[in-house]
Design a protein that fits this description.
Two copies of one chain form a homodimer.
Chain A lengths: L1 E5 L4 H12 L4 E5 L12 H6 L5 H4 L10 H8 L2 E3 L3 E6 L4 E5 L5 E5 L2 E4 L3 E3 L12 E2 L4 H11 L6 E5 L3 H12 L3 E5 L11 H13 L3 E3 L4 E6 L3 E6 L3 E3 L2 E4 L3 E3 L2 H5 L23 E3 L6 E2 L6 E2 L4 H15 L13 E5 L2 E7 L2 H6 L4 E9 L10 E9 L5 E8 L4 H12 L4 H5 L15 H13 L5 E2 L1 H9 L5 E5 L3 H6 L6 E2 L2 H4 L13 E5 L4 H12 L5 E4 L20
Parallel strand pairs in A: 1-2, 1-7, 2-3, 7-18, 9-16, 10-11, 10-16, 11-12, 26-30, 27-28, 27-29, 29-30
Antiparallel strand pairs in A: 4-5, 5-6, 8-17, 13-14, 14-15, 19-20, 21-22, 22-25, 23-24, 24-25
Helix pairs in contact in A: 1-9
């Protein structure tokens, strides 16, 4: 059996190696345009920041062996043609036409073909795009170009266009290298896969680190001589010695399209669960491939290294006649922004609405482990559940606390179709250095249960602000924190009765009996208690501000940001 | 409705508060023997070590409010009788007889009663047990006694009897305070909920930190004048200024038993999923209560703070007529040993066998995030699956890498009844600072799939050693690491052919064609590749040593321990 694999980064080498493991008699050839195989593209920002010292580390196995063509030949028995391009596929005769570095062409026959052609950065056709020092970050060569500039002995103004994952990772990397960094984002927020209140936390963190964030801002063009000097935006011109274009990636499908293979709605290769394209002898895997969102069952284009590896395995198994299937993705995402993390799985609230769900949400900021441990850090957790089925739809976590643990737990729960009641019963591990006795995830699930059971009615800070500021509205913001806490950051207008005094001073609220009362505290745990007290005293229109003052994105928030518990 | 709650630590206050939240009209009284309510018992070792500075922090809410009787009255509207003991229950007349600190007695009527009487440390009746400075660790007062001794200006010899969770946490705490520490354990290993190869990693770490471990050793008696000076064991006498007895806890059920309530097989209170005892008006919750192991469906006594909280909520809901139920536990466990963590959920391999399962296991040591990140740490992962159903039965993690994330993910997967195929498809989050592209959990699941699919046959280091050392056996240990790696720690007898040369030097193995060949490398990934190469070359009896040299618990291992990737 002759197998040709086009693309040598993630899905390709995985598929190739697995085919040989399944069937040592197979003849497998990888065709790769570049020099390198199996390099860790996700490590490039850390190579640029200097956290990863040598390029070689990104191409090595954990043992330190560089995955070059010799390695693939000797260890995996996979033939590698690097510096070689696949230029055409002849499906009828089952051949791939290749072009070598020296421009010679050749036809290679295949029984099965795997397309692992990846994705490429989108390069919008803006005036000035061809100026020097406008980079994308996709290949090792891009990283080397950026690093060369950084080695110059001067402070560099770097403008990052696009506040997605690569954009924010690059912002951190360049700031760590001493650049003055701005991020320009067309949408109203960075990290568009997150809901705005979570993205706002990250924007705040960037700003605290001196990084300028321009959201809702289009780039018009680039100015300069040979090199870029200015990024002209709708709002203001930005000085730029370097520009990083990170406005997304597009699947590399031209080879496939030109031989008549089908692409999906997302523009990526359409495949069945066995990773077969519309031609059963041709598979597609990795970043060039469309996949299914496990929650919406709709096609999705969410390129990820982990997914590419799974694709590669499934394609290899199917090629070798071993039953397997790729089920789909949740779009799990994580990125580091200095000491902060943002992580997500499943649907955001906005995505849930767009997909036609009736979502119920909770915002729960709390210490990430026993609050009395000095290393406890603040973790903001947002859960989104399906009101009808009580199933978890998505989870977002942010902050200096441990986010990945909670999001991986949520990803597992969503995959299993768990309800929030199931989640509240999870037996997660806890000891003071690792988690509170009631893990943040369980607390959040219980808040959702309270909301779904009608015991608690939440309102988001944004909605609360709007209501209370509306002229002539009969809405009271009741802050039940201690006077000392309120002195640190008061919301205006609001009234303060500390929770401990609420029962004894309830008559202070007599005049508000017919008002809507929105209760808040630091995280809205005391707020919840207060709302229950008010209800027991006959107040009928009582809401709790989701996430408390910690989720209040307006004035006064700065003081309570950061490493605070 | 009058509710009496006996016990004010975890399940009791939780039940009391939740009842009032559910039903503000309820009259709820907590009866507590001691001074304190809702204190974090699990924080005591960290109070002793000095990580937690003040006792008060263990009794406070995350906001810093001490949960005393005034707090419960004002905030929760719960009446608290502390320094008060419940001495008898009259089920017929539905009253509890209480005794106050001043010895006065009183009868309190109840409609519903919640027993949250907790558990107490086992104190074996050994000669000398009444000597001074023999402690258990259960209450704040115990911690104060230990701290008083530590404040003396001398090096203290501390002997810890029992290597369970509290024992190992205390060993760390006392070592951090400068004590010379020994642990004496009757069983063959410390941390008996873990399989021996995982416990061995922790024993090694203790020894590296200068802590003496005596396993398989019974304590005979204590010697001393007024104070303890020596612990006499079967093996050797140990100098002791201080002894910590941590040989387990027993549920406090005497009050319940004397009024005729049923206990279960484990000796703890028997309850239904609504936490009702054999008297439907009496509930039991928390450490005094038996629960169900979700995997075996058998009764279990696994006291945990998180479980107590869940029990309290369920009991409160049922008392208030709200549908709820406690489902059971997985025995999730975590503890810190200096820079190491040991964490577990579900069944160990031994427990799985005892429960009648046919377990298949994998041992997977690997970096806990992208291996090129400088902060990557080694994580040892062991999964146990049911050979028949392919469902995950348990997971154990240890090492300086991030363990809790993987174990919480596993706990969620087990709760959902996931197979290892489901797990291999999980969309977990990854970026270099947080996880490898193929998370350790997914790699481990894939190893299990390979084993279950018959593609890989594993053998544990212990079994490999036995086989190869047997005189006249035709068993070859084939080490496929590089010569440089082998030079660092060679297993004798073994043969070395680096993986990259195995195909070209295969004839070296011609004489072993009929032998059993056990292949190994550092972590057994190259070992697996080598085994496949051998099989493709006609070798029929090939096994892979589970976990590679990193799981080899014999000579030469020290060199590769610790922060090594």
């Amino acid at each position: 059996m002759k197998v040709i694999v086009i693309g040598g980064v993630a899905a390709g080498p995985k598929a190739a190696s697995k085919i040989i493991r399944n069937n040592p008699e197979a003849e497998v050839t990888i065709i790769e345009k570049g020099e390198f195989l199996s390099y860790a593209g996700c490590g490039l920002p850390y190579y640029i920041s200097g956290v990863v010292k040598e390029q070689k580390e990104l191409m090595s196995t954990p043992i330190g062996i560089v995955r070059d063509s010799v390695f693939f030949q000797n260890v995996k028995n996979v033939n590698v043609l690097n510096h070689t391009e696949a230029v055409a596929i002849d499906r009828k005769n089952k051949t791939v036409k290749i072009k070598r570095a020296n421009e010679t062409e050749e036809e290679l026959p295949y029984d099965k073909l795997v397309l692992a052609t990846g994705a490429s950065p989108v390069k919008p056709q803006l005036p000035g795009m061809t100026l020097k020092n406008i980079f994308t970050l996709h290949e090792v060569e891009d990283a080397e170009g950026i690093k060369n500039m950084l080695s110059e002995n001067r402070v560099i103004d770097a403008v990052i266009i696009g506040g997605g994952l690569i954009g924010v990772e690059m912002a951190e990397a360049l700031a760590e290298r001493g650049c003055r960094v701005s991020i320009v984002e067309m949408l109203d927020q960075i990290l568009p896969m997150f809901d705005s209140e979570i993205a706002a936390l990250m924007e705040k963190r960037f700003e605290e680190k001196g990084i300028k964030i321009l959201t809702g801002t289009k780039v018009l063009c680039f100015d300069g001589g040979k090199e870029v000097h200015k990024v002209m935006t709708e709002r203001e011109p930005l000085t730029a010695d370097m520009v990083i274009m990170s406005v997304g990636v597009r699947p590399n499908v031209s080879l496939a399209v030109s031989c008549g293979l089908e692409t999906g709605k997302t523009g990526a290769m359409k495949v069945n669960p066995q990773m077969q394209t519309s031609d059963p002898n041709i598979y597609a895997a990795g970043d060039c491939t469309e996949t299914v969102n496990l929650i919406t069952n709709k096609p999705a284009f969410i390129p990820r290294g982990a997914t590419a590896n799974k694709h590669g395995r499934v394609a290899a198994n199917d090629i070798c006649g071993i039953k397997d299937g790729f089920r789909g993705v949740l779009g799990s995402t994580i990125c580091k922004i200095f000491d902060f993390t943002a992580a997500k799985t499943g649907l955001s609230e906005r995505e849930a609405r767009l997909a036609g769900f009736d979502p119920v949400i909770c915002l729960s900021p709390a210490p990430d482990r026993a609050h009395f441990m000095p290393e406890a850090k603040l973790l903001y957790l947002k859960l989104v559940a399906n009101r009808k089925t009580r199933k978890l739809l998505g989870a977002q976590a942010a902050g200096s606390g441990v986010c990945d643990k909670r999001i991986d737990t949520a990803a597992t729960a969503i995959s299993a179709g768990m309800t929030i009641d199931d989640m509240a019963n999870l037996d997660l591990c806890h000891a003071p250095p690792y988690a509170p006795a009631m893990d943040n995830m369980i607390v959040a699930a219980n808040i959702l249960r309270n909301k779904l059971d009608g015991v608690m009615i939440g309102i988001k800070p944004k909605g609360a602000k709007k209501k209370v500021e509306k002229k002539g509205s009969s809405v009271l913001l009741l802050d039940v924190r201690s006077p000392a806490e309120v002195a640190e950051n008061k919301i205006e207008p609001s009234m303060n009765i500390p929770l401990g005094k609420l029962r004894s001073e309830i008559e202070k609220l007599d005049v508000f009996k017919d008002w809507e009362i929105i209760v808040l505290c630091k995280i809205s745990l005391r707020g919840y208690e207060a709302a229950l007290i008010l209800k027991s005293k006959g107040f009928e229109n009582v809401k709790v501000m989701d996430g408390g003052i910690l989720m209040w994105p307006y004035a006064g928030r700065r003081k309570i940001q950061g490493g605070e518990k």
